[in-house]
Amino acid sequence: MKQSLLVLLILIIISGCSATNDPAAPASGTLLEGDALPGKLLFVHQGVIWRWQGRAAAPLLGSGQAAHPALSPTGDRIAYVVRSNSFSDLLLADAAGQPLAQLTTNGTNEPPNSLRRVYASRWVFYPAWAPDGMHLAVATQAAPPRGDPPADYNLALSLLPAGPGLAQPLFAADDAQVAHSAFSPDGAVLIFTRAGSGPGGQQRLYRLELVSGTALPVAGAPAPSYDPAFSPDGAWLAFAARDGEQTDIFVLPASGSGTPLRLTTMGLARAPAFAPDGNWLAFLAVAPDSVGFDLWVAPVQRSESGGILVGTPRRLTQGMNLDGDSGVAWGR
Length: 332
Description:
Blueprint: H1 5-14, E1 32-45, E2 48-61, E3 66-71, E4 77-84, E5 87-94, E6 99-102, H2 115-120, E7 124-129, E8 135-141, E9 155-161, E10 168-171, E11 176-183, E12 189-196, E13 203-209, E14 215-217, E15 225-230, E16 236-243, E17 246-253, E18 261-262, E19 269-274, E20 280-285, E21 294-302, E22 308-310, E23 314-315, E24 329-331
Antiparallel strand pairs: 1-2, 1-24, 3-4, 4-5, 5-6, 7-8, 8-9, 9-10, 11-12, 12-13, 13-14, 15-16, 16-17, 17-18, 19-20, 20-21, 21-22, 21-23
């Protein structure tokens, strides 16, 4: 059976930063201790969502199939994806990891690993909270798989209520997939990752004006670029971008215009996330002495000219082989 377009998209996104399993990764009960950080920071290790709070991190929720955690604006809820056989669903938990709700029902009673199950399946990925805390932007499969053999329908952007209600379409294109997205703090703009269908389609950041529905490429972001994140004050847009053989974290003014400013020189870095106070930047990167992603943080500084700089990055985990596609979520 052909690789589905969905699988190809995920492979494209992580192709510059893939890693093998690290035998030194800690067991799920391991407690990590280190820098004191504001708020709550979430990341994923072996399908389990971990939370760094204060000076320590420990497993929070998930049993091996969790991915893509997102903290609500007030920090009281976590949206996350649970993968299953041929489908995925979006769930809500409270800040302590206790279940609250299941927002999608993409499952099917068709036999596991059967073609009927494949044709009946749906996928949802990459939740991003709107500033109102009442909606989430998600990448959703807009229609069932098609063709023979089946290929998953393209992922489109939808606005999903964080409670009862129907999803609203935001963006779809027959020749493109969508992935990670981020709302501007004022809720007027959604930056999202768009990639052409198939293995050769490069990721590119797009800017969706939510009132008009207009979606255009972010002018200053190169291709490939992905993993968008706004600073809490709405002044800056951070993202991962490829520069030759290296992938690092860059920023642009929130308007998306200008020349990108490089914040890291790791060579294998992605998934930026600002602390809620704006004074730290977290990201995932592969160190020279490692084979997988670890969690890093760096202090954020403002220059006299109004620019943004980061201090020396510090590695918070070692050998954990974190899930790069799930990224990092940092909130209150």
